[in-house]
Amino acid sequence: MTSHISNSHPIVKVENLTIYQHSYCAVRDVSFALLPGTNTAIVGPNGAGKSTLVQAVLNLIPYSVGKVEIFDRPIERLGHLRNQLGYVPQNFVFDRSFPLSVSELVGLGWIREGRGALALAKRGEAQRDEVRGEGRGSFWRSWNHGQQEKKAAIAQALRRVGVYHLRNQAIGTLSGGEMKRVLLAYCLVLPRKLLVLDEAFAGVDAQGTADFYNLLHELQQEEGWTVLQVSHDIDMVSRHCDRVICLNQTLVCTGTPEVALSAQNLLATYGPSFSRYQHNHS
Length: 282
Ligand SMILES: Nc1ncnc2c1ncn2[C@@H]1O[C@H](COP(=O)(O)OP(=O)(O)OP(=O)(O)O)[C@@H](O)[C@H]1O
What we know:
Layout: E1 12-21, E2 24-34, E3 39-43, H1 50-57, E4 65-70, E5 73-74, E6 85-88, H2 102-107, H3 117-131, H4 138-160, H5 176-188, E7 194-198, H6 206-223, E8 226-230, H7 234-240, E9 243-248, E10 250-255, H8 257-260, H9 263-270, H10 272-281
Parallel strand pairs: 3-8, 3-9, 6-7, 7-8
Antiparallel strand pairs: 1-2, 1-4, 4-5, 9-10
Helix pairs in contact: 4-5, 9-10
The structure holds adenosine-5'-triphosphate.
């Protein structure tokens, strides 16, 4: 796999980001950087701006002030490198009667460099060769090979998240936790450099959550993926993430879990309700 990034160079740079949701300032003056191969969690109370922040980082909503760079390019000019981003949103809203199977949904993630305009142009050339009798079936052989490759990648992605048995099921029939797994499979169908998860484990059972964190660890350690996740699970974050960003409209602190998740920082992030929570769970 070719790398665009050297190991000590940030894969994501966010500088002084301010985001308005209509007239409400949801995120104010937030800066952070993500190093390749790290797993970073954004934590904070409901309404802190976590989803807003990741959506702006992915250029899904506009920001008012600041700068976002991914792979050293402004997010607005990422071009085909967007294929190297995977995103599982907090809510996936769709028409449940839409006739799409789990495998078909995961297959939509199979868009890769060389399978876009350039590949189409090459296919056009191949088709012209066929018409002239010069292609000797090479176009169809390569198309067939691509389809086999795609089918194998879908099967592997579904197996990795434990839902291969659901491959022919309509997406409208899935439970909440199953849908989260399928959306993760959609991201896994191709190698990515950055995976952004917005409460991807909400609704997933305890064993499933543990399996997911193991899978993220594997993606990080063996395949060099960088993970940015929004989470409310302080316990899992402290055990599995390398870095934590504490957010409450603005950046409260950032650092290793030991530093960022100290009682003092959590109190500053969540307010007095956190000490009540801590008291009830200790
Ligand atoms: N379209 C909108 N108009 C006005 N305010 C909005 C809009 N969208 C979001 N907000 C507000 O922006 C704030 C940040 O929302 P966001 O969804 O980013 O929070 P969050 O930290 O992800 O919360 P949660 O943990 O509950 O998912 C919230 O107070 C929300 O009500």
